Every structure is written in structure tokens, then in C-alpha cells.
Amino acid sequence: MGFHIHARVAALVVVSALFLASASAVALPRKLSQDNLITKLCGKTNYVSLCVSSVTENIKGQQTGAAVLTAEIDAAVKSTKVALTKATTLYKSASKQEKGILSTCRENYGYAIDKAADAKAAIAAHDAASLNIHLSSIIAYVGTCQDSYDDFSLVSPLEKVDALTSHLGSNCLKIASHIVL
What we know:
Blueprint: H1 2-42, H2 48-58, H3 65-91, H4 96-124, H5 128-151, H6 159-176
């Protein structure tokens, strides 16, 4: 009788090990294909390494084309919020002329953040036309800050973060053009 119990336990261990091995084998390719989705979509952008790192940092849940795009939109929002915080800090000690420019920047950063929320709503509504308009608006609103400095032939202290946000916005547009909503 002891032999039958050990044989059953051994059989159970073998079956469990096979089950776990097959479960691992299924999970691994699924993970690889998710990474491949990020690599594939980001590979279509102008800023590939930025895309891969920002999407990997921000992606949540099931990894689909829409999730990759949403993660890149989230990265653009984070960058815009950094610019907004920096503009608010600079405003406190700025000259009158620069306060006017920074007010324009702050206002437009707010609009860019609103457009990012609208873009996410367009993804949820499967509305590709509206999505493209909202994503383009993010880039335009952020670009307005740099244009305001250029109008006065001043060097923008926000140039780097604005460029980053514009690159993220560009990535969003490219990703959007390669997914089905």
C-alpha cells in the first residue's frame, strides 16, 4: 500500500511539473510577443529608443496597440507636467517680458494635457480621425511655447523638455497610424 501512495505522489509530482513547464512555455512566448509588439510599433517611430523606454515604463495591463499608444500618451503628459512645473517656477523670478511668454507656455501646456485626455477618449471610442487631431494638437500647443521665445529672439529655458514632449507626441502619431482602433 505504501508503494501505491508513493507512486501516486510521484505521478502527481510529474504531472504537476509537466503542467508547470507547459504553463511556463505558454507564458514566455506571450511575453516575448508583447515585447515584440512594443519593439514593432516603436520601430515605426522617429525616436525609437525614446519610444521603447517610455512605453515600457508606462504600459499597464494587456499589451495591445492601443495600450502601447496610451503608454506613450502618458509619457507625453508626464513630460508636459514637468514643463508646466518648470514654467511655474521660472515665472516667479522672471522679467515682465518673460512672464508674458511663460504665461503663454503654461496656458498651452494645460491645453496639451487636455488634448492628451481627449486622445485617450478617442482611443476608447475607436475614433481615429479625432485621435490624430488631438495628438497633433499636443505637439502644436507645446511648440507654441518655443515659438513665443523665438518671437522675442530669446533662448527658451524649456527648450529641452519641449523637444522631449514634441518627440513623444510625434511617436504617438506614428504609433496611431500603425494600429487598428
